[in-house]
Amino acid sequence: MQHLFSLGIVDFILIALISYFCGSIPFGLLVSKSFGTTDLRTKGSGNIGATNAWRVGGKKIGLLTFLFDTMKSFLPVLVFKHLFGTGVAALAGLFVIIGHMFPIWLSFKGGKGVASMFGLLFAATPQTAIISALIWLVTFKKFRVSATASLIAMSINSIASFFILDLFTAIVYLFLLLLIIFRHMDNINRLRNNKESKL
Fold first, then answer.
1. Of 1, 3, 46, 184, which alpha carbon lies 20 to 30 A from 12's?
2. Predicted local distance difference test score (pLDDT) of residue 94
3. Three-state secondary structure call for residue 155
4. Does residue 26 sit within a domain?
5. Residue 171 pLDDT > 90, yes or no?
6. Whole domain around residue 87: which residue ranges?
7. What would you measure as the largest C-alpha separation in the chain, in angstroms?
8. Coil, helix or strand for 167?
9. Do the Cβ atoms of 162 and 119 come closer than 8 Å?
């Protein structure tokens, strides 16, 4: 935590910008176009994330999108963790996910942040990453709905963080949970009306 509070304003701005622009790379769109798939923004939910990539382009495109969206968070967060510690890494992850959700290149219309959140967790706090991944897998196996699995896993991650992580990182994860819920409001409404499609 000492590294977090010793950051200068220039360091903070650089970390925020590097992280945001890493997150803003629209891998779902790039992967789908490289395979000749229709623009994800015009099909399915219109989202460029892994779930819609899977629905529109199939398993391979979905998995590749998930991998790249995870790694674009994992790599910068891991670097900042080694340089500055967990608090700064969590902060960097926050900006990566903001970049993913609101990319400047796509009029701030991006993904929902779950894959990039997993990248952040595995790089910064693997203990909560393992918990969240297991919960996601169990929930998805039962319901076959990505949104349900994601919301439950990220909610439990946030709660667990307040017990096993430092307060600053836990607060960052709580804020990210709120962002993820916000980006999933359409899914939540479809779930309420039993209209959310399964994978």
1. 184
2. 98
3. helix
4. yes
5. yes
6. 2-192
7. 49
8. helix
9. no
DSSP state of 180: H
Burial class (CB in 10 A: 0-12, 13-18, 19+), 87: buried
Picking from 121, 118, 116, the residue whose alpha carbon sits closest to that of residue 72 is 116
Measured between alpha carbons, how far is 2 from 116 in angstroms, rounded to an integer? 26
Q: What is the pTM of this model?
A: 0.93
Q: Is 194 left (phi over 0), alpha (psi -120 to 50) or beta?
A: left
Residue 25 confidence class, pLDDT cut points 50, 70, 90: very high
Helix (H) or strand (E) holding 33: helix 27-34
Tokens of 113: 């942040």
Number of domains in the chain: 1
pLDDT of residue 4: 65
> Are 179 and 101 in contact, with CB atoms under 8 Å apart?
yes
The candidate with the shortest Cα–Cα distance to 118, out of 103, 101, 106, 133, is 133
| Mean pLDDT calculated for residue range 17-39 | 92
Q: What is the DSSP string of 4-31?
A: HHT--HHHHHHHHHHHHHHHT--HHHHH
Query: Is 61 inside any structural domain?
Result: yes
Tell me: pLDDT of 197 over 90.
Answer: no
Determine the Cα–Cα distance for residues 97 and 76; give it in Å rounded to an integer: 12
Report the pLDDT value the prediction gives residue 139, as an integer from 0 to 100.
97
